[in-house]
Design brief:
Elements (H helix, E strand, L loop, with lengths): L1 H20 L9 E8 L2 E8 L27 E5 L3 E3 L2 E3 L2 E8 L6 E6 L15 E7 L2 E15 L4 E19 L1 H13 L7 H15 L3 H15 L12 H18 L3 H12 L11 H6 L1
Antiparallel strand pairs: 1-2, 2-3, 3-6, 4-5, 4-10, 6-7, 7-8, 9-10
Helix pairs in contact: 2-3, 3-4, 3-5, 4-5, 5-6
Length: 292
């Protein structure tokens, strides 16, 4: 009989182990995630969200001066699709473990670690840290469940928050939109023929003009677009009519010049646009022109 009991217990242990591995039992601290897109940059956060449950958190459950997983369960992770600045410090695109060292009456340390696949902080090693930033924790109204949040300020900046118990940590994330869109434009131009590459430069410029940022670069692309248009030999029927796209080019350039306060030249391009006939009516904004 004893020889039967031992294998039975072994089988039960294996079954129980498998039960945990396949996640039959919901985690007490549920897994959460959020995503934000800043310009062209996607930012993903994955974390476990513990509750305070009436406990004292910082200085007790989460000791001061020790590395904390900044959540529960697996290490918190942050994934970046492009290079960014975190509080003006550079961080390359990639996935990172995100850790925090809380401190009493002193700045807390935020850590981005290259090991993003680990349980908690038990295998954390400072030798694989990529970036450390010291920030002040600010007092907060009570937050029962730990949460992360992001708030895009514009196409180049987002505010990033960690809130739990009576504490808030805040970081600023900045992206280099001009670098990213320049790389995108050049990569797409490389795949286009001379008959369509002028449109890629136009579209890149339109984005910058719409944001009212980097107008010098926008005008460079618009000038290149005009030059390439002169080399167009054929226009495929499935595209928009060629005159429509040319009208678009003239209108975007007029706006760019107006943003540079070169109103006289802007109105030259308005007249060029009008010279294209009825298609001009789809672009002309008389109120905007009057404001110049």
């Amino acid at each position: 009989m004893k020889t039967l009991i031992i294998p039975l217990l072994v089988c039960m242990n294996i079954a129980l182990s498998a039960q945990y591995q396949i996640g039959l039992i919901p985690r007490v601290s549920p897994d959460r995630s959020l995503s934000e897109v800043v310009g062209y940059t996607k930012i993903d956060i994955a974390y476990g969200s513990p509750k305070t449950n009436g406990r004292a958190i910082f200085g007790e459950l989460v000791p001061y001066g020790e590395v904390w997983r900044a959540g529960a369960n697996n290490a918190t992770t942050i994934e970046l699709s492009h290079d960014v600045l975190i509080n003006d410090e550079p961080l390359a695109a990639g996935e990172y473990g995100f850790f925090v060292i809380p401190r009493k009456d002193a700045d807390w340390t935020i850590i981005f670690n290259s090991n993003s696949k680990q349980w908690g902080s038990f295998r954390y090693a400072d030798s694989t840290d990529v970036l450390r930033i010291d920030v002040a924790a600010t007092p907060n109204t009570h937050v029962e469940s730990l949460r992360y949040s992001m708030e895009a300020v514009n196409t180049e900046t987002a505010n990033f928050f960690l809130d739990w118990a009576q504490a808030r940590l805040a970081l600023t994330i900045q992206v280099d939109n001009l670098k990213i869109i320049s790389e995108l434009v050049e990569a797409r131009v490389a795949k286009q023929s001379v008959n369509t590459s002028w449109v890629v430069y136009l579209q890149g410029a339109e984005y910058l003009v719409g944001q009212e940022r980097y107008i010098d670069q926008a005008l460079n692309w618009l000038n290149t677009s005009e030059e390439l248009y002169e080399e167009v030999k054929e226009w495929r029927k499935e595209y928009y009519p060629q005159e429509y796209v040319l009208a678009h080019l003239y209108w975007v350039k007029a706006q760019a010049l107006a943003l540079q306060e070169d109103v006289a030249e802007a109105k030259v391009y308005v007249e060029k646009l009008k010279g294209l006939g009825d298609v001009a009516d789809q672009f002309l904004d008389l109120e905007l022109i009057d404001s110049w």
